[in-house]
Amino acid sequence: MAIPDSHTRHLFFTGKGGVGKTSLSCATGLALAETGKQVLIVSTDPASNLDEVLGVTLGQTPTPIPGAPGLFALNIDPEAAAHDYRERMVAPYRGLLPAAAILSMEEQFSGACTMEIAAFDEFSKLLGDPAATTQFEHVIFDTAPTGHTLRLLTLPSAWSEFIDSSTGGASCLGPLAGLEKQQALYAATVAQLADPARTTVVLVSRPETAALREAERTRAELADLGVSHLHLALNGVLAVAETDDTIAGAMMRRGAEALAAMPAGLAALPTTVTPLLPLGTLGLDALRQMANPALIQAPGDEPDSDCILPGKLSGLVEELAQAGRGVILTMGKGGVGKTTLAAAIAVALARRGHPVRLSTTDPAAHVAEAIGESVANLTVSRIDPAAEVAAYRAEVLAKAAANLDPNGRAMLEEDLRSPCTEEIAVFRAFARAVDGGQDAFVVLDTAPTGHTILLLDAAEAYHREVSRTQGDMPEAVRQLLPRLRDPAFTRVLVVALPEATPVHEAERLQADLRRAGIEPFGWVINQSLLASGTRHPLLRQRGVSEAPFIRQVADQLSQRCALVPWLSEPPVGSDGLDQLMQ
Amino acid sequence: MKKLEIFDPAMCCSTGVCGVEVDPVLVQCNADLLWLAEQGVTVNRYNLSQQPQAFAANPAVLKELEAGMERLPLTLIDGQIVATGAYLSRDQLIEKLDLIPSAPPASANPFRVQTNSGCCKPGSGCC
Fold first, then answer.
1. How far apart are the C-alpha atoms of B38 and A223, rounded to whole Å?
2. Binning pLDDT at 50, 70 and 90, where does residue A511 land?
3. CB contact under 8 A, B123 and A411
4. Residues of B numbered 47-86 whose beta carbons fall under 8 angstroms of chain A's beta carbons: which are they?
5. Tens digits of per-residue pLDDT, A353-408?
6. Is A398 an interface residue toward B (CB < 8 Å)?
7. Under a CB-based contact definition with an 8 Å cutoff, are residues A289 and A274 in contact?
8. Which residues contact A245 (CB under 8 A, 6 or more apart)?
9. Which of A387, A503, B25, B40 is least crowded, fewest Cβ atoms below 10 Å from its Cβ?
10. In this record, what's one Pfam family (chain B) (predicted)?
11. Least CA distance to A412: which residue of chain B?
């Protein structure tokens, strides 16, 4: 089997964005359904593409998949779930409380926290309440990206610890008010996850160092939560006979090196290997191939693509350099290479003699590592959530605790351990980094899509608040949204890979940005096999299939775009990064 | 011993630590209430977004709400409204509750707070 062969009732797929969680969970679900089982696939990912993979429009109740008897799927839409949750909290008081009071309650239940809690609530109903899925023999969760998933899973235990240890009573537990009643359900959910007889968690990874490192982090964090029935699914492994093709050789070598250096904790897990497919993974036929590589037909001798390729990244950098300063944001889903591109652009601008500050909010990023050696005019920093939180706590205590008695101070310290504090601390760091764009270039690789949108959303909310109160707000925060919206100050580069799902996801990201009043400057299509010059049959077939997506980006989606080839040498160090410009 | 009740505006939490800036008024207020509870005063605190039933069940509070959201926060002692639109200082609470002062007095100025300007701003990424 090229897919996890597990017989537990629940299966979870988790991993870094873009590793193929949705495809693998669908392939696994389809294979189980084809042995006569009743199977439900559930997505809790706000950026889910379950619809695309299965080729059917899904809703919040199980929908049968045409052509696959026994297979059902549903999408948990966090926004709709948040709306329902808000209604549950507010509706009983309509008519009892004045309209203005109802309005202010509704506002309070409109934030990101509510959305997260609501999504978890829906998820728990499926997992913690057996009656909800009684007709299915297997329930497969195509979970959200790793960090998000873990937060969903750990919040209840973190919060119940927080309640227990809180000394002051009335404390910063926020929307927990509506959550406390469900403690039993959440406890049942976590118990289900930790029960090896009932649940398997599949860590999905590509044969790449960063993805494997992320999988290892997840493994360790799950182990801390008592979840130990794990499986490793290596997806997209290129394994062909001897080849004299530079690209194919490099891809195999890099994959093999990454796997050889795999952390010991991962190497000890039961593992399946899914080969790199010549075509994408949309539709039932592709999913069947994923599970049974024997079905894959050898690539034919297809003609070369006559696709006109977009220009190089160096052309885009030339345009960016003209402003002489400002903020450059690389945005896109996890795994598309935002960090590498941000680093390459920063190095290229610095080499032109511009002062450049490169900063990352991606916790999985190793930007300093990517630069390798120091480059003149370039400074690199990381928005490290742990460090930001510590600094923020110290600042708050210094400012607010001066007049407090020991008990008051103890309570404040306790409150600063709440889950919100990190969000605030990171947000402030982001605003500060953007502020630096007044007199230099600031290049930021933002965290995955959902988080990015939250930051922008937060900026908007703060902006409104600030406009009204003109209170004691840092100037950097006050200026944030106007700066992000100013095309002369901020240039957003949308990053995508030349495949169906990444392009569609980037298209959604662009729509979100436009709703927030931000027009992307351009797009970068990364890791193109078509542009790589490979002659290997399988990779060539994948390359040819990129053409429609490249043209869609160039002709319809972007004002300007650049194409970056798949590189045979990994883009590490400043010389490695220079390759991206060529 | 007297009973003290605070009816807060809708906010994520009542401690003041989770905004872009910490709200020192809320931090101080929280510490004052904790101190009062230690002196034996019964302290109950209600947040409009989390305990709306307490607002709906109290006719005097409802009447204030109908007059406008800026009437919040409300301070009640033994069911009587003693302050609207601002938190009382520790000294003022001591006086209204007929306690003997024993702690160093905090600032005497009641600060105005705006409805919704408390702890977590809507959409702040916090709640």
1. 41
2. confident
3. no
4. 47-53, 55-56, 62, 65-66, 68-69
5. 999 999 887 655 566 666 756 788 998 888 887 888 888 888 888 877 777 777 77
6. no
7. no
8. A534, A535, A536, A539
9. B40
10. ArsD
11. B27
| A443 φψ region: left (φ > 0), alpha (ψ -120 to 50), beta (else) | beta
Q: Which residue in chain B is spatially nearest to A400 when comparing CA positions? A: B24
- Quickly list DSSP for B17-63: -SSSS--HHHHHHHHHHHHHHHTT-EEEEEETTT-HHHHHT-HHHHH
Q: Is the pLDDT of residue A551 over 90?
A: yes
DSSP A331-376: E-STTS-HHHHHHHHHHHHHHTT--EEEEE--TT--HHHHH-S--T
> Looking at CA atoms only, how far is residue B69 from chain A in angstroms?
7
Confidence category of residue A263, pLDDT binned at 50, 70, 90:
very high
* Contact yes or no for A215/A244 (Cβ under 8 A): no
What is the pTM (predicted TM-score) of this model?
Answer: 0.72
Higher pLDDT, A327 or A333: A327
Q: Does residue A18 carry a catalytic annotation?
A: yes
Top-confidence residue, B83 or A48: B83
CB A6, CB A231: distance < 8 Å: yes
Backbone angles phi and psi of A150, in degrees to 5: -65, -40
Any chain B CB within 8 A of the CB of A361? no
Q: Do A418 and B13 touch (CB under 8 A)?
A: yes
| A580: phi then psi, degrees, rounded to nearest 5 | -65, -20
pLDDT in tens, A287-320: 998 888 888 777 766 677 788 899 999 999 999 9
Instruction: Determine the pLDDT at residue A455.
Output: 45
Q: Which residue of A has its CA nearest to B67?
A: A98
A391 interfaces chain B, CB cutoff of 8 Å? no
Is A574 an active-site residue? no
A528 versus A569: the higher-pLDDT residue is A528
B127 at A interface, C-beta within 8 A: yes
- SS3 call for A203: strand
More confident residue, A123 or B70: B70
Kindly list the residues from chain B whose CB atom is less than 8 angstroms away from the CB atom of residue A90.
52
A324 is catalytic: no
CB contact under 8 A, A111 and B106: no
Residues in chain B with CB shorter than 8 Å from the CB of A469 are 114, 117
Q: Is B98 left (phi over 0), alpha (psi -120 to 50) or beta?
A: left
Question: Which of A212, A243, A515, A548 lies closest to A364 in space, CA to CA?
Answer: A212
Question: What is the nearest CA distance from A170 to chain B, expressed in angstroms?
Answer: 7
- Confidence band, pLDDT 50/70/90 cuts, at residue A452: very low
Q: What is the ipTM of this complex?
A: 0.76
- A250's tokens: 């490099």
Rounded to whole angstroms, the Cα distance separating A65 from A34 reads 12
* % of chain A with per-residue pLDDT over 70: 80
pLDDT at A479 over 90: no
Question: Looking at chain A from residue 126 to 185, which residues have their Cβ under 8 Å from any Cβ of chain B?
Answer: 168-175, 177-178
Active site residue A501: yes
Instruction: Please judge whether A105 and B15 are an interchain contact, meaning their C-beta atoms are less than 8 angstroms apart.
Output: no
Chain B residues close to A423, C-beta within 8 Å: 124-126
- The strands making up A378-382's β-sheet, listed across from edge to edge, are A378-382, A356-360, A441-445, A326-331, A490-496, A522-528, A561-565
The CB density around residue A542, as the number of other CB atoms within 10 Å, is 24
Q: Kindly give the parts of chain B with pLDDT less than 70.
A: 12-23, 101-127
CB-side exposure of A476: number of CA atoms within 13 Å?
Answer: 14
Within a 10 A sphere around the Cβ of A142, how many other Cβ atoms? 28
| List of chain A residues whose C-beta atoms are within 8 Å of the C-beta of residue B107 | 403
